């Protein structure tokens, strides 16, 4: 491999093999690019597991303005309305773009897209593929396209460990393939590494998604934003498997209801009932369980006998657990599903570090605000990949010079972080639990060991959660249950987060805010 590195000097490097990274690489064609994936393509990508689909205003009764209104309402005052408008307007074209790449979206008998309904959407606007296999079908098509694209140099089983930064600008990527370290000299890097579910004990995400892209950006000096907002999916399959299998919101869109072990429908009196925003449903399920109840998704009446045909993947793992969804209620619980916060980026995906872009779940575009609207995430990844690629292609390349590296950081292991973050940043949070997480995470983050990068990401999330002394969207503080009248995004760098965390450890809690902007 080292003999070929000279041929790659100066090429844009895309870190991440999920939908955002693959689409960015394809959109950059015919410019030669390097795509790094720490595992075989698709093996550890959250996109592969996405069941819900893409949200796009493509129905006859729909309009991007209606999609925007639903997005802003779900975002609880923290969406960037301009960014959200730009992204949802581009969503219908993104569906068409994927179809041209070979994605076999489900169609009605008249040939139009078959559209589903999910929580907090005012219209049926969710475009699916093979029922509950949308992510898998999208990834199949994108992987095939990338493998056949001559301008993409694909480096699988290669993990980015650090970004080389000089004078606040990107100069390269330090990566490892097996035991062999390598340096990719470049002035243009796109981080598209996905989310943070692997930092928690109970998540629907692949265990290998634990915030590596956030750590790369933070150590490079980039500003991160809204890290406290973690979306818990209310209906993960309750069982011993980890990650937890997901029961897509589309099932509730088809009429399934939530009940306890007595058969009582506890969401019936909530506005929107089972199709209320995800944070509302997740808290309701969490409270039922905290009171000693079990919670079940009851699909026996709707979709009933059509369940297996509509949701073949879910039906298969239910049957493996001895459950027939057409006859039996399905046990569920909340689990970490999506991260609304991330690397702060502008309209073109640029971070605050010259030469560094971000795309997909790892970025904070302003679309999701405090609470992602269902199925907006795959759509965001596809839409923003185009704008990121256009900006990367038009950016001044500068001269990339290969550099020697003093030491390669070790592979990360989030095992020590999971219990700390799960306790401190659960569905319901409070000052004491968050501060306890910070005290446990800071010494791990300040080491050079395998826990350092995961702890660093968890620490920044916890500092943001402690600083937000209100309840908004997916961030609910039982000690601060009210929502403040003015919404302010959180934005800070790694050095500011570390300083704030030290205040928590060394001094009285109120003074830690002085270290944040």
Provide an overview of this structure.
The chain is of the alpha/beta class. It has 17 helices and 19 strands. It has helices at 5-8, 19-28, 46-49, 64-74, 81-89, 91-100, 134-147, 212-219, 250-253, 278-290, 307-310, 312-320, 376-394, 418-424, 431-445, 452-467, 494-506, and strands at 13-15, 33-37, 54-55, 115-116, 126-127, 152-156, 159-166, 169-177, 180-185, 189-191, 224-225, 230-237, 257-260, 295-298, 330-339, 342-344, 356-358, 363-364, 491-492. The chain has a five-stranded parallel beta sheet with strand order 6-2-1-10-17, with helices on one face. A four-stranded mixed beta sheet has the order 18-16-11-19. It starts with a helix and ends in an 11-residue tail after the last helix.
